[in-house]
Amino acid sequence: MEVSKAYKLLLSSSYDEFRKLHDFLEAMSEREGFSEAFLQELTFVVKEAFVNAVKHGNTGNEASVVGLGFESLRDGNTRTLLIEVADAGNGFAVHEIHDPTSPGLLMEPSGRGIFLMRAFAEIIGQEKFENGWKLHLRMRPY
After folding, report:
1. CA dihedral for 43, 52, 84, 81, sign (positive or negative)
2. How far apart are CA 81 and CA 83, in angstroms?
3. What's the number of CA atoms in the CB half-sphere (13 Å) around residue 4?
4. Could you write out the DSSP letters of every residue in the chain?
5. Per-residue pLDDT tens digits for 31-63
6. Surface-to-core class of residue 103, CB atoms within 10 Å of its CB (0-12 exposed, 13-18 middle, 19+ buried)
7. What is the pLDDT of residue 94?
8. Number of neighbouring beta carbons within 10 Å of residue 101
9. Structural domains in the chain?
10. Nearest CA to 38 among 119, 140, 134?
11. At what angle do helices 36-52 and 18-32 cross, to 10 degrees?
């Protein structure tokens, strides 16, 4: 039997929202019983996705918002955390980002965030919706 808990957070499209995001992730992590190590991975992934939504999706427009949704699933001993990050802009095609460790790209200033996110989370999709783009991620809490 699968047990699910949902969490949602709506932030203005500003880097000043990092404290609210961090506090939210800490509270959710404590409620869910995630380890401190997993919380650090989760924080990195979600903050990077938030930065991408602010910078690339909403192009720095502080009047826009970033929506974050989390669904914590448990099926026996198996835990899954589904994450959704939604911007209100044009976004970018995450699967078209080149590997920044490829020869010729090592000195490029972009693409590292997505590359590092993939070390901790699986990018399971990206979709256009009427107001922007949604990025879907999956992590395995421990």
Report:
1. negative
2. 6
3. 7
4. -EEEEEEEEEEESSGGGHHHHHHHHHHHHHHHT--HHHHHHHHHHHHHHHHHIIIIISTT-TTSEEEEEEEEEEETTEEEEEEEEE-SS----GGG---TTSTTTTT-SSSHHHHHHHHH-EEEEEEEETTEEEEEEEE---
5. 999 999 999 999 999 999 999 999 999 998 999
6. exposed
7. 82
8. 10
9. 2-139 (3.30.565.10)
10. 140
11. 140
CA dist., res. 83 & res. 19, Å (int): 19
| Whether pTM exceeds 0.85 | yes
Residue-wise pLDDT tens digits, 70-117: 999 999 999 999 999 999 988 777 877 888 888 888 888 777 889 899
Other CB atoms closer than 10 Å to residue 114's CB: what's the count?
20
The pLDDT of residue 116 is: 92
Name the nearest CA neighbour of 83 among 37, 116, 120. 120
